[in-house]
């Protein structure tokens, strides 16, 4: 599913193979990366 998405976001602490094919790397999940990304992309 990740490979066919138009935009691919990986958290900083994802495995390197996933980060290599991602559109962008966001903050780690330990730093609330997904929540922060969603706030920045859709709420601001």
Quick tags:
alpha+beta; 14% strand; 2 helices
β-strand percent reads: 5-15%
Largest sheet: 2 strands, parallel
What coarse outline follows from CA principal-axis ratios?
A: flat
Work out the count of structural domains: 1
The average pLDDT value, as a whole number, equals 94
| Count of beta strands | 2
Supply the helix-strand structural class: alpha+beta
Tell me the strand order in the biggest sheet.
Answer: 1-2
Give the termini separation: 27 Å
N-to-C SSE string, H for helix and E for strand: EHEH
Which runs of at least 5 residues are low in confidence (pLDDT < 50)? none
Report on the structure:
This protein is α+β, with helices and mostly antiparallel strands. It has one domain (9-43). Helix content is 36%, strand content 14%. It contains two helices and two strands. The protein has helices at residues 16-20, 33-43; strands spanning 9-11, 24-26. It has a two-stranded parallel ribbon with strand order 1-2. It is flat, with a radius of gyration of 11 Å. It starts with 8 loop residues before the first strand and ends with a helix. The model has no long low-confidence stretch (mean pLDDT 94).
């Amino acid at each position: 599913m990740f490979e066919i998405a138009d935009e691919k976001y990986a958290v900083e602490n994802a495995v390197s193979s996933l980060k290599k094919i991602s559109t962008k790397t966001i903050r780690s999940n330990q730093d609330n990366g997904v929540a922060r990304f969603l706030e920045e992309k859709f709420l601001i």
